[in-house]
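Support request from a user on the community tier.

User writes: "When I paste my structure tokens into the form, the page sometimes reloads and wipes my input. The last time it worked, I copied everything first. Here is what I submitted, just in case something in the input itself triggers the reload:"
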């Protein structure tokens, strides 16, 4: 389904939640590091106050600010795993929750939804769009052979509605802010090597069945003037190459400037697809690539080695300006 994604004059993406915090990472022209929070008293340290850092957790959340024609809009993309991790990081970064105009959910896993609680606690009654795929409410688990099944509980539709959010449930691409930002909707699976996760299962009428593809997995995309597409993923369960190709196909824009977020290639099952994934990513020729969250150590290091000029190591509190 073709969409008319307009060029924007500016884009800023800030990592509110990710798996790593590193106060010593250097910044760059497009990369601003803000790992430190406000100083606090600590009687066991010989100083009036001592600086704090941000929280890292196994989850993901990003604040997206997009500017076009002199107007800036703010979107919250995912919310981390703990009830208060995201909101406390926002406080320490002096990000104001009241500025958020819409929430977009990449998919229904708990490490992207837990922080809804802290956001609602802070804002009280919420009145803004909450964009998600209708399959995000699916009850799921990871059930590896010979292992123990791990529940992957979904967000509560009734609780989200009860908080005042305006649910926008769609499998199709959708546009925010008069065409300034794209939510991809369901991503077409086109590569031969991104075959999903074989141990994922979903509950269908009380019966568990295989669900290697999470069709609620979606990304957000901006078309930055003079640069091209910037693609932001949550976990990338659709396959990061599938996601980028899907963004190209539905926008008609071939040039890829930035790819950021979780690429979900962690663990031995995904090791065989590291090489073909990197080959495909290099073919996009992005100027910035930021694999975070669930990408995994080996894939991150392989991407860094293969694309040293584009690779940026992510950490909580990092802002990217395009």
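"...and here is what came back when it finally went through:"
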């Amino acid at each position: 389904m073709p969409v008319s994604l307009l060029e924007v004059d500016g884009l800023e993406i800030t990592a509110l939640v990710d798996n790593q915090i590193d106060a010593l990472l250097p910044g760059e022209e497009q990369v601003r590091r803000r790992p430190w929070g406000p100083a606090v008293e600590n009687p066991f340290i010989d100083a009036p106050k001592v600086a704090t850092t941000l929280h890292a957790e196994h989850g993901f959340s990003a604040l997206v600010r997009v500017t076009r024609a002199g107007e800036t809009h703010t979107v919250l993309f995912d919310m981390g795993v703990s009830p208060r991790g995201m909101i406390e990081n926002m406080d320490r970064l002096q990000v104001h929750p009241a500025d958020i105009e819409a929430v977009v959910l990449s998919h229904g896993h708990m490490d992207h939804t837990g922080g809804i609680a802290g956001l609602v606690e802070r804002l009280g009654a919420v009145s803004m769009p909450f964009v998600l795929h209708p399959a995000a409410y699916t009850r799921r688990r990871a059930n590896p052979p010979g292992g123990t099944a791990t529940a992957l509980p979904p967000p509560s539709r009734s609780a989200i509605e009860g908080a005042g959010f305006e649910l926008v449930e769609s499998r199709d691409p959708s546009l925010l802010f008069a065409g300034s930002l794209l939510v991809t909707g369901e991503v077409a699976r086109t590569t031969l090597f991104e075959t999903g996760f074989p141990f994922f299962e979903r509950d269908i009428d009380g019966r568990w069945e295989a669900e290697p593809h999470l069709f609620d997995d979606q990304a957000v995309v901006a078309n930055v003037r003079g640069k091209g597409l910037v693609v932001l993923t949550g976990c990338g369960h659709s396959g990061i190459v599938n996601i980028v190709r899907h963004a190209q196909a539905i926008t008609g824009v071939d040039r890829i400037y930035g790819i950021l977020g979780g690429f979900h290639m962690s663990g031995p099952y995904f090791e065989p697809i590291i090489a073909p994934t990197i080959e495909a990513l290099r073919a996009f020729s992005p100027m910035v690539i930021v694999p975070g969250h669930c990408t995994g150590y080996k894939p991150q290091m392989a991407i860094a080695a293969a694309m040293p000029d584009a690779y940026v190591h992510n950490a909580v509190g990092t802002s990217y300006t395009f």
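Agent notes: The reload is a front-end session timeout and is unrelated to the input. The longest strand covers residues 10-17. The mean pLDDT is 96. Escalated to web team.
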